[in-house]
Amino acid sequence: MASNLQSLNSNHLNYVIIVAGGSGSRMQSNLPKQFLLLNGKPVLMHTIEAFEQSAFKPGIILVLPEAYHTYWQQLIEEYSFTIPHQLVSGGETRFHSVKQGLDLITDTDALVAVQDAVRPLVSPAIIDDAYRCAAEHGTAVVAVKSRDSIRQVRDGKSVSLIRDEIYLVQTPQTFKASLLKKAYEQPFNSTFTDDASVVEQYGAEIKLTEGDHSNIKITFPEDIAIAELLLNKKPQL
Ligand SMILES: Nc1ccn([C@@H]2O[C@H](COP(=O)(O)OP(=O)(O)OP(=O)(O)O)[C@@H](O)[C@H]2O)c(=O)n1
Ligand SMILES: C[C@](O)(CO)[C@H](O)COP(=O)(O)O
What we know:
Radius of gyration: 18 Å
Bound molecules: cytidine-5'-triphosphate, the ligand C[C@](O)(CO)[C@H](O)COP(=O)(O)O
Distance between the termini: 31 Å
């Protein structure tokens, strides 16, 4: 086993669960999108690197489908990837994958960020703002204001909504571990599209922190080219 695959130890005050358990059906690629190359490096490695640069130094838990564990270890060696992380198996949905990661966290005072593996352009500044907000309020969900006008369609009729009241939700979504673990004990519901919806259903208020329009989720085939363009525009640290 590669040396950077490790067991979590109790030295961490903060964690990130990077969910990479999906198959990427909308991407229409044989290889799941978390492994596709972005500027010559797998998407997933960009995402892990952003968290490694966080001032909150989170313990990194990576959730991957069991069938790809060996492939991931090959990539680790091929790219000489040395960032320590613990690997766990993915679940049937994103909800179940997050639960798999949460099972490894026993410190209920910790802060836990949940991050889509396929948002590789997330910045350490956004990550740190979310940890700070969660430390103060218990919840922090990264979001951006809509740049387009918004209409809602109900019963075949469209009505305009107030754009300034509409936010588009990204990741990370960061919480006190005690709250997130309790919320994830609820039975699965198909309205749970993200961690905020799970925690809100449990009864907590969701605080938003500022995201970035470049923090895109790689979902469709064209998103790789868009992400490369954005990555090459980003100031390098
Ligand atoms: N069973 C699942 C499904 C999704 N995810 C992760 O959740 C994130 C956001 O999901 P999405 O973009 O929908 O990824 P996929 O489910 O892989 O894509 P699709 O819906 O197109 O199949 C991704 O990093 C994905 O790997 C996961 O960990 N476990
Ligand atoms: C978690 C998320 O990325 C927030 O925008 C989003 O809800 C994931 O949705 P998907 O349907 O799994 O793409």
